[in-house]
């Protein structure tokens, strides 16, 4: 299976110069499929956690966004129980100018800045809106339980 040069270049760059707190490793048998480990960002309820994600580059990449989801359970208004992520650049704001690295950094930023006004997990968003302190506490507990 031959990969487009762009994917090869991006993968090489990710390996040589990983984004801080993010490790993305392509599968040997399918180089479009990456195992991602993301550290919970400092000053976020997810600090101290190590989150597993999967990232897949569809045939249409870079014209279509990568498919990314959390495999580690996380209590976040923009990430649902299946690990799907509500992030504009993974949907309608995608641009071929963006890269795997940009996507992963954006997901990491989303952990630092949950947006309950554009939720994927409505119950979590409601919790964040009605009692943010308690919701953050739940996020911390989940991080310790599932991502430690």
TrEMBL record:
Q: Where is the UBC core domain positioned along the sequence?
A: 2-148
Q: Check the record and name the InterPro entries matching this protein.
A: UBC, UBQ-conjugating_AS, UBQ-conjugating_enzyme/RWD
Name the UniProt key words of this record, in alphabetical order.
ATP-binding, Nucleotide-binding, Transferase, Ubl conjugation pathway
Gene Ontology MF annotations: ATP binding; ubiquitin conjugating enzyme activity
Keyword Lyase included in the entry's annotation: no
Q: Which CDD domains match?
A: UBCc_UBE2N
Q: Look up keyword Transferase and say if it applies.
A: yes
* Enzyme Commission number, as recorded: 2.3.2.23
Name the active site residues.
86 (glycyl thioester intermediate)
The protein's matches in Pfam families, at most eight in alphabetical order, are given as: UQ_con
* SUPFAM superfamilies named among the record's database cross-references: UBC-like
The similarity annotation says:
Belongs to the ubiquitin-conjugating enzyme family.
Protein's name according to its UniProt entry: E2 ubiquitin-conjugating enzyme
The opening ranks of the lineage are:
Eukaryota, Fungi, Dikarya, Basidiomycota, Ustilaginomycotina
């Amino acid at each position: 299976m031959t990969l487009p040069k762009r994917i090869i270049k991006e993968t090489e760059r990710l390996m040589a110069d990983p984004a801080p707190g993010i490790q993305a490793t392509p599968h040997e048998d399918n180089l479009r499929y990456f195992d991602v480990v993301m550290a919970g960002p400092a000053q976020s309820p997810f600090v101290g956690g190590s989150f597993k994600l999967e990232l897949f580059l569809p045939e249409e990449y870079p014209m279509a966004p990568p498919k990314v989801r959390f495999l580690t359970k996380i209590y976040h208004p923009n990430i649902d129980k299946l690990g799907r992520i509500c992030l504009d650049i993974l949907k309608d704001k995608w641009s071929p100018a963006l890269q795997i690295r940009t996507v992963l950094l954006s997901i990491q930023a989303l952990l630092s800045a949950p947006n309950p006004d554009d939720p994927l997990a409505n119950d979590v968003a409601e919790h964040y809106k009605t009692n943010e302190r308690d919701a953050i506490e739940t996020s911390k507990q989940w991080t310790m339980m599932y991502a430690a």
